[in-house]
Amino acid sequence: MGRAIRIALLLLILATVAQEAWLARSRATTWNDPLRVSIYPLNGDGSQAAADYLRQLRLETFEPIERFFAEESRRHGLDIHRPLRLTLAPPIAVLPPPPPKAASALDAILWSLQMRWWAWRNSSGDGKPQVRMYVLFFDAERNPRLPHSVGLDRGMIGVVNAFATDAMAGSNNVVIAHELLHTLGATDKYDPATNLPSYPLGYAEPERNPRHPQEFAEIMAGRIPRSPAQADIPESLDQTLIGAGTAAEIRWRKTP
């Protein structure tokens, strides 16, 4: 009985928080004004390489994300010159709570609440962003593979794992843009069993004839389909597009 009461209270708290977050996201995606997004850098593995990278990090590193949103919004007919306004906050020393592995529903609820509480305590000094993207940088030599990044679709909070090297800045920005779109309501458009883009919404140019090879990745599919069984990871946002399905999910156009 006690466990059931605790779960019910957690569900009530989460429902209240989710409703407030949904209202905030609805206001943010009217696209009447630029969406205020702040990037918070963190040393993800405590390495010297990541510490050195954070010391020289500048807002210019992330400007391709602003440019990508501006170009894609114009392509979809959005009447706003600058849909996204990025700021770079000072580095944060305290790491966010790690997402649970093979989580139960209760674990997922607890982590979501913990993440919101942690973000609330680690978001000062940068104005009032509507979206908070926490980017954890890792030594690329010590970490050839990184854990999955996360975007809370009703929390307007993203946790991105990235490589602490200029050589990977382009692909880091692809991941940041992908998770940022998750916070605005966009969904993944790939097969989780194969990581291959799902046709047609996971294709940047689904009407292309012949269908393969594609030249661009749909940002929420994350890969460029070269053949029915092969897809390449884009090296930068220059190789990605926002497809019609994603544009509809973030209220850039009507549902296709």
Task: State the gist of this model.
Helices cover 34% and strands 17% of the residues. The chain is of the alpha/beta class and 256 residues long. The chain is globular and about 60 Å long.
Description:
The protein is 34% helix and 17% strand. The strands form three sheets. It has a five-stranded mixed β-sheet with strand order 2-1-3-5-4, sandwiched between helices. It has a two-stranded parallel ribbon with strand order 6-9. It has two domains: 2-185, no CATH class; 187-256, no CATH class. With 256 residues, it is of the alpha/beta class. Helix 1 (2-28) crosses helix 4. The chain starts with a helix and ends in a 7-residue tail after the last helix.
Distance between the termini: 47 Å
Which percent band covers the strand fraction? 15-25%
Q: Report helical residue fraction.
A: 25-40%
Helix and strand element order: HEHHEHEEEHEEEEH
Main sheet: strand order? 2-1-3-5-4
Continuous helix count? 6
Q: Uncertain spans, ≥5 residues at pLDDT below 50?
A: none
SSE-based structural type: alpha/beta
Number of domains: 2
Keyword list:
about 15% strand, five-stranded mixed sheet, globular, alpha/beta, two-stranded parallel ribbon
Write the topology of this structure:
Layout: H1 2-28, E1 35-43, H2 48-56, H3 63-75, E2 84-88, H4 105-121, E3 131-138, E4 150-152, E5 157-163, H5 169-183, E6 217-218, E7 224-227, E8 230-232, E9 240-241, H6 244-249
Parallel strand pairs: 1-2, 1-3, 3-5, 6-9
Antiparallel strand pairs: 4-5, 7-8
